[in-house]
Design a protein that fits this description.
By secondary structure, the chain is α/β, with parallel strands linked by helices. The radius of gyration is 19 Å and the shape is globular. It is 38% helix and 18% strand. The chain is built from 11 helices and 12 strands. The chain starts with a helix and ends in a 17-residue tail after the last helix. α2 packs across α10. The strands form 4 sheets. The protein has a 5-stranded mixed beta sheet with strand order 9-8-10-7-11, with helices on both faces. A 3-stranded parallel beta sheet has the order 4-1-5.
């Protein structure tokens, strides 16, 4: 990857200048192989791009560490961390109490509301009782699946899970689903595509449930990696102070004003 080589060269140069400073092993950042624009996806050349990728690059540069992006299937990303295939989960993972039983997290680096979208009908009632009998699509092994199970499946809606968000969005556009629930920024990006504009509309934001929806997105780390956690948190705080979050978000106009980031950006 281009950014990996860039950080390797930068770190190597820094090590030479430091003389006897020991070489650091790569910090492996695990990113879900499934596209999740505008946060992480591949461009036409196969290079990873997106808001979260830009932030990862900035964090690595701030830490002056070598970094490597490792693609991992979303439903296996926590096992990849605990088995030391990766060192950090950097893939829009929400900080939840359930996940904290297995792994630890960095400080929050962004948060957005959870929303439901559906076909253009003008019906904006998304209460669980109103969606009884409807088919709702959701990405598997996410906080959104758990939320839908608790509130909507219990009220009589049918849930259909997908390996990727794109698959759920495509089925909604094709009329095979009635609704989709996910992160507001990701679904906003879909609604602005030609496909999303033609088929669908924002139905509304679901009622908050911090126990399920969490405390925002953070980097997942192993509980014993306290030194790495401290380095990551220091870098996140320094980037916030330097207004780097606002600078990165400005590159993605659809996200401006729709995210909470460290330092108060929204």
């Amino acid at each position: 990857m281009k950014f990996t080589r860039r950080f390797v060269f930068a770190a190597a140069a820094a090590a030479m200048m430091a003389g006897s400073a020991p070489a650091m092993a790569d910090i492996k950042f695990g990113v879900a192989a499934e596209p999740y624009p505008p946060f992480s996806s591949k461009d036409a050349s196969g290079t990873w791009v997106g808001w979260e990728i830009d932030l990862m690059n900035a964090v690595c540069a701030q830490m002056n560490e070598k970094c490597e992006l490792v693609e991992v299937a979303w439903d296996g990303i926590i096992p990849a961390l605990t088995s030391k295939q990766i060192d950090v989960i950097w893939s829009s993972m929400s900080i939840t109490g359930e996940r904290k039983q297995t792994i630890d997290f960095t400080d929050m680096y962004y948060n957005t509301p959870t929303v439901i979208i559906g076909a253009k009908t003008g019906d904006l009632d998304i209460t669980p009782d109103h969606l009884k009998g409807k088919v709702i699509g959701v990405q598997v092994s996410t906080i959104h699946e758990k939320y839908l199970q608790k509130y909507y499946a219990a009220a009589g809606a049918e849930l259909k899970t997908y390996a990727t968000q794109d698959e759920a969005n495509n089925d909604l556009a094709a009329g095979r689903l009635d609704y989709v629930q996910a992160d507001g920024s990701a679904l906003d990006a879909f609604l602005k595509t030609e496909q999303g504009t033609a088929c669908c509309e924002l139905k509304g934001q679901v009622a908050d449930d911090p126990e399920i929806l969490g405390e925002g997105v953070g980097g997942g780390i192993r509980k014993e990696d306290t030194a790495l956690k401290d380095k990551l948190n220091a870098a996140i705080a320094e980037l916030a102070t330097a207004k780097k979050f606002d600078e990165i978000t400005a590159k993605y106009p659809d996200l401006v004003g729709k995210m909470i980031t460290p330092g108060g950006g929204k």
